[in-house]
Each structure stands twice: as structure tokens, then as C-alpha cells.
Amino acid sequence: MSTRFRRLLLCLPVFSLLFSGCGKKKEGTGFTSSSDAAPQRTPIVVQLDWVAEPEHGGLYQAQARGWFTAAGLEVTLIPGGPNAMATQKVATGQVQIAQADSTNTILAIAEGLPLVQFSAVFQNDPSVLMLHEDNPVRGFEDLSGKTLMARPEWAFLAYLRNKYKMDFSIVPQNYSVANFVADKGLIQQGYYIAEPYHIIQAGGREPRYLYAWDAGWDSYTVLVANAPWARKHPDALRAFVKTAIAGWNDYLKGDPTPANEAMKQANPNNTDAFLAYSRQKIIDGKLVTGLTGTDETGRISAERFATQIRQLRELNILKKDLKPEEVMTVEYLP
Question: Considering the entire predicted model, what is its pTM?
Fold first, then answer.
């Protein structure tokens, strides 16, 4: 995978639906403004799972618009990378919130880490297996005996072996698309909202995808908080969630320029072309809003977490029997 590597003043526009009592509505904008002095803001540090890219677009949009500040929050976004250690940083209190994969977070909670998953970023985690168009593998059942470049700890791999009663070899992910472009037979894990752009730029064609959810593995990309901190600051966390959801709505349906400019500052490898490509992939895949036909932005469900817990238990990856309410909550959602 190629490299995927931060406040305006209170008086800037904010969504009138989010914050009451913020002043007079500006004609025709749908925003409100206020000149009142802000109370002391709650500091929140957010550890991102990867470098600043459109998968964090809603957070950067909310920050660039000044909406976190208007909500009484002082938010700092920390870009990540292959060794971001996001959940560990949340658990130890180095940061208050992180973006992560829901199944990995379940496993961390089972190990005793004080974490709680409180909102979705993506309704479907966009991790996929990428193949060249002419690769004879047409479905998951065809992976038997093949070699995959992927993160060895990806629980989906164990799920595939178990569901299809097969085995395959794993070459550790090197976070580059060079091998994929050069080897027409290579099957590689990737984020389908990012890697394909770099494959095309390197002279290849957009790959085919095997989507994990098509095999019945339907994890979220989530926001996770330090559980003791969340219990101590419920109003701040509710404000954060509401503002993040507004940021995603504006980033995907409005002008993404504020977030894009902020992400280019945080990650100089971003280009306008890549940012537009990845954002459109998120829109087309309904990753934020969900595939149900109703807007599920930010929503998480106990039922889906129960399924993930059951699957991890069946694979003997999750050693402790957990209930959904032990790993997630909806109490901070709007």
C-alpha cells in the first residue's frame, strides 16, 4: 500500500441543528453563529488508525469548520500508521478516542483494556482482498492453496479458513502496491477506497475485490473511547459524536475543501486527485450511511456486535464470552 500517512474560532458557522442557543441563523445557510465567549473547552485527543486520508474526512471537516470548538471541545487529531497502537493508547489514557476495527477492539476489551465502542465511522469496514481482473480466483472458495499478502493478525483470514474448510499461505502486508502491480497473480489485502488509486497511478488497472461482508464477516470501523473517561465526560462525548456525524454529512454531501486542505497539511502525500477519488469511493460504497436505505451515519447495533462476538468465539480467537453491552454502547449517540 502506498503511504497513507490539524481550529477556527467560535464565531464561525455551525449547524443550527446541533447546537441550540448559538445565535441568529444566517439567511439561507442553515448555519448559526454566536459571538458569546465560550466556556472552558474539554480537551479530546483522537488517535487515527492511519495517516490523514478521506477515511477520516468527517473528523477533519468538523475540525476545519470550527464545529468542535463551537461544541465546547478542544479536539486534536493525531495521524496514525502501521504501528499506531490506537486502542492501546486509548486504554492507557494517552488519548481519549481512537478510530479502529471493531473486531480488534472486541479482542482488546476481552484482554481487560478499558475501552468502549460508541459510534461507527464506516458501517462496513472497507478492508478487502484485491485481485487482478484476469485472476482465475472468482470467489472466496477459490483461495485454497493460494498465497495472500495480508496482515497475519486479520481475524477474517481465520474466518475464511474455517468457513470454507481450506488453507492458504500468508505473506505479511508491506503496505505497498508495488508487488501487486508487478505480480498479476498476487492477491493482496487493502482498503478499496485508497489502494486502487495508487495501483492505477502506477500503471495498473483497477482491481477486482472480494468483500469481507460478502463472506458474512461484517465488522465496523468504529470510534472507541477510554471507558472511565467516557463515564466522567458523557456530555463532552455526546457533543463529540454529534459534531463528528455533522462533519461526515457535510464532507460527503457538501464542499469537502475544508477537510481536504487540512488533510493535505497533515499528510503532504495527499493530492487533490487522490482525495477526490477516495471520497467518491466512500460515497459510492455507502460506507458511512450504510446499505440499508436509511441513513445509519454513526449508528452501531448490539445485534451486529453479538454476531461478531459469536464468530470470534467460534474461531477460538476470543477466549472470553462477552455480551454486546460489555464492548459497545449507544448512550452517546444522538
Answer: 0.87
